[in-house]
């Protein structure tokens, strides 16, 4: 039996670090959305677990037990072959590995495999929200998820090609006790309304990540210079940055601007929701 799965890019519109538990896990309050671009997988039953990786960003991605998609198969007690087309840059703060793992779990569920409720979180804090695959407020250590109704958000994703290890970014974070988002996220009718509200929120990892890689600050700066931009910010722990626009056309024009100025950057116009 073969099942195809899509693993969309995960974008943190906000990422508030609100504390740290005694066991070292950070507490987060984040508004998460997903793009219409992502990795593609095929899951096929077989006697043993195996994996092949292809695509633009296949280089450097392990095809063994170090890969989160592989770990998802093991955690689900499944044997088979995983074919992964790597469209998203890895180590980029857009949940590529977590989204791949969630896609494997989703595909296995479609095939009739029973997945224990504790499996997603055991694979990583971002896997449960990636399994949900919709606009979500993610809190705690990724275990508290509340769906959020958001409009479609035309956007540009930019990655300057600098992988940033998440532990290094958290280590560089000075303050771990920061305010959460408001208790209630308002309803938005337009991308402009959403972007205006987001300006009052934060990504607490943006400053420490910029301190580790000046390319992130440059990417945000370049996005802020594009026409009709509503908001520009880093996603997750970096190094991917995003900008929001009022229309799909504006996003595509901005992507062209960035692509011409920085042909070595990964740059895509997308829709987020």
Keywords:
273 residues; alpha+beta; Ribosomal Protein S5, domain 2; Alpha-Beta Plaits; four-stranded antiparallel sheet; 29% strand; globular
Strand and helix map with partners:
Layout: E1 2-12, E2 16-20, E3 26-45, E4 50-54, H1 68-75, E5 80-85, H2 96-110, H3 119-123, H4 127-132, E6 136-140, E7 144-147, E8 153-159, H5 166-172, H6 191-198, H7 206-212, H8 214-224, E9 231-234, E10 241-244, H9 248-261, E11 266-272
Parallel strand pairs: 4-5
Antiparallel strand pairs: 1-3, 2-3, 3-5, 3-6, 6-7, 8-10, 8-11, 9-10
Helix pairs in contact: 1-2, 5-7, 7-8
Average pLDDT metric: 96
User: At CATH's second level, what is the architecture of the largest domain?
Assistant: 2-Layer Sandwich
The name of the CATH topology of the largest domain is Ribosomal Protein S5, domain 2
Secondary-structure element sequence?
Answer: EEEEHEHHHEEEHHHHEEHE
Question: What is the top-level CATH class of the largest domain?
Answer: Alpha Beta
- Write down the Rg: 18 Å
């Amino acid at each position: 039996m073969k099942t195809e799965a899509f693993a969309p890019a995960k974008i943190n519109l906000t990422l508030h670090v609100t504390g740290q538990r005694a066991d070292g896990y950070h507490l987060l309050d984040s508004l998460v959305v997903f793009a219409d671009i992502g990795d593609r997988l095929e899951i096929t039953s077989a006697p043993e677990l195996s994996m092949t990786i292809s695509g633009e960003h296949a280089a450097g991605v392990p095809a063994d037990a170090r890969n989160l998609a592989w770990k998802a198969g093991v955690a689900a007690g499944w044997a088979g072959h995983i074919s992964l087309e790597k469209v998203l840059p890895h180590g980029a703060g857009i949940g590529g590995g977590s989204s791949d793992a969630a896609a494997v779990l989703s595909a296995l569920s479609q095939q009739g495999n029973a997945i224990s409720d504790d499996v997603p979180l055991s694979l990583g804090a971002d896997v449960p929200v990636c399994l949900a695959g919709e606009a979500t407020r993610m809190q705690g250590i990724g275990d508290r998820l509340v769906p959020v109704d958001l409009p479609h958000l035309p956007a540009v994703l930019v990655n300057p090609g600098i992988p940033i290890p998440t532990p290094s970014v958290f280590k560089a974070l000075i303050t771990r006790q920061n305010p959460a988002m408001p208790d209630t996220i308002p309803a938005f009718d337009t991308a402009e309304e959403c972007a205006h509200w987001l300006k009052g929120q934060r990504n607490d990892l943006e400053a420490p990540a910029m301190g580790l890689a000046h390319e992130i600050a440059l990417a945000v700066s370049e996005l802020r210079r594009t026409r009709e931009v509503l908001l520009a910010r880093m996603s997750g722990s970096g190094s991917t940055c995003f900008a929001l626009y009022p229309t799909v056309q504006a996003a595509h024009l901005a992507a062209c601007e960035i692509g011409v100025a920085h042909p070595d950057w990964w740059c895509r116009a997308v829709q987020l929701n």
